Amino acid sequence: MTTTIYVPDIECDSCVRLIGRRLAGKGITGYTITGDILLLEDSEKANDVIKEIKSLGFRASTSPFDRKSFKERFRDFRENKEKYQTEREGIETALGVFGLLAAITIVAYVGFLNRIPNFLHNYGWWLFYLLIAITAIGAALWHYTAYRAKFTCMVGMMVGMTFGMQTGMMLGAIIGATNGFFIGSMIGMLIGTAAGVVTGKCCGVMGIMEGMMAGVMGGTMGPMISVMMFSDHLLWFMPFFMLINIVIIIGLSYLLFEEVVEQNKEIIRKPADFLTVASLSIIAAFLLGALMLYGPTSALLTF
Amino acid sequence: MAKKTLNLSIKGMHCPSCEALIKDIAGDCKADVKSISHKTGKAEVSIEEKDLPAFKKEMAKEGYTVEQV
Questions:
Q1: Mean local confidence (pLDDT), A225-239
Q2: A300: helix, coil or strand?
Q3: Buried (b) or exposed (e) across A227-250, using 16+ Cβ within 10 A?
Q4: Where are the domains of chain A?
Q5: ipTM score over 0.85, yes or no
Q6: How many other CB atoms sit within 10 Å of the CB of residue A105?
Q7: Least confident piece of the model among A11-20, A197-206, B38-47
Q8: CB distance A14–B18 less than 8 Å?
Q9: C-alpha angle A217-A223-A227 in degrees, rounded to nearest 5
C-alpha cells in the first residue's frame, strides 16, 4: 500500500538528490518524489523514511503541512535569496524611497519651510509620520502589484480590507492632527476607500465592498484618534500606533507571499521600477504635505 | 597517507541543500568538508590525494565541477 509523505521544504533538485542519497544509503528504495511529495510503495518503511528525511533538516510527515512557522520563514528568507528576490528588492525600494523623501523634506525645510512659525513644533513629527506612512503603504502596494496572479475571494478581501483600513487610518490620523477632524476624515476616507477599491477589486465585488468599508472605517477612525487624544499624550501614542500599523502592512505582504506567490510556480513577476515608485511617492508626499501646511484647518486647532 | 586541506572551487551549487549534498558526497569519499559556501562557490576540504579523483568523479555525477584553487 502506498504512503504519501509530505516534505514541504523540498525546494530544488539538490534537495531531492540529497534525500535520495540518504535513503539509498539506508537501503530504502521503492519510492518516487514529485514536487514536495514522496510516494512510498512500502508503507511499513514510512517511519524510517520520515526519520531519515528529518535528520537532514527537512520537515516530513504523513499529514500535509500547513505553513512555515515565523522562525522557519525567517531562516528561509535569509538562506534562499533567489526565492525572495522580489521581496528583497521591495525592501531596498522602500528604504530608497524613504531616504529620498527625507532628503527632499530636509532641503525644503532649509529652503523655505523654516519660515513657517513654529514649524518643527507644529508639523515636524507629522511630516515624519507622513513620510513613513507613504513609504509603508507604497511598499505594500509595490509588492502587491509586483505579481500577476489570480486571487481567491478570501485573499482579495484581506487585501482590500487591509489597504483600505491602513491607508485611511494612517493618513487620516496624520491629517486629522494637523488639519482637524473634518479634513482628516475626508482625506482619510477618500484615499482609504480608493486604496481599498483599487486593491480589493482583484477578487470582484466582495473585495471592493470590503475595501470600501475598511476605507470608511479607517479613514474616519484615524482622525478621531488624533483629535480626541490631542490633549492627552498624542505624540507619545503615535510611535506605537504607527509601528503597529506598519506591522499589519508587513503582515499583508507576508500573507500575499505565502498564500499567492509561494505555491504558484508559474507566477509572473513584474515589479515597478524605482523611478515610478519614487515619483508617485514624491507626488503623494507633496500633495498631502501641502495640505497639512497650507490647507484648511478646523477652528478647534490653533497653532 | 595524511590528509591535505585543499581549497576547491565548485561550480553548480545554488542553495544550502547543495552544501549538504556535497558534505554527504565527501563523507562517502573519506573527505571532510571544513567549510563550504554556495554563495561563493568555494569549499575547504580535507582529503587524501589518492581519494581526490574519486571525489571529483562522484561530484561530477551529481552535476558539480570541482577545481583546485
A1: 92
A2: coil
A3: bebeeeebeeebeebbeebbebbe
A4: 3-66, 74-294
A5: no
A6: 18
A7: A11-20
A8: yes
A9: 140
Indicate the residue type of A180. G
Q: Do A79 and B24 touch (CB under 8 A)?
A: no
Q: What is the pLDDT of residues A92-130, one digit of tens each?
A: 999 999 999 999 999 999 999 999 999 999 999 999 999
B50 touches A at CB < 8 Å: no
Residue in chain A nearest B21 by alpha carbon: A18
- C-alpha cell, A286: 507633496
B12 touches chain A (CB under 8 A): no
Q: Is the pLDDT assigned to residue A302 strictly greater than 80?
A: no
| Cβ-Cβ contacts under 8 Å, A53 against chain B | none
The A-side interface with B (CB below 8 A) comprises 11-12, 14-15, 17-18, 21-22, 56-57, 79-80, 82
- CA distance readout (Å), A195 to A26, A29, A271: 56, 54, 18
Please give, rounded to a whole number of angstroms, the shortest distance from the CA of A77 to a CA of chain B.
12
Q: Please tell me whether residue A187 adopts helix, strand or coil conformation.
A: helix
E-assigned strand segments in chain A: 3-6, 31-34, 37-40, 147-148, 268-269
The CA distance from A97 to A104, in Å, is 11
- As assigned by CATH, the class of the A3-66 domain is alpha beta
Residues of B in contact with A79 (CB under 8 A): 15-16
- How many residues belong to chain B? 69
Closest-CA residue of chain A to B15: A80
| Residue predicted with more confidence, A67 or A277 | A277
- Gap from B20 CA to chain A (nearest CA, Å): 7
Three-state DSSP class for residue B43: strand
CATH code that applies to domain B4-68? 3.30.70.100
Q: How far apart are CA A242 and CA A171, in angstroms?
A: 10
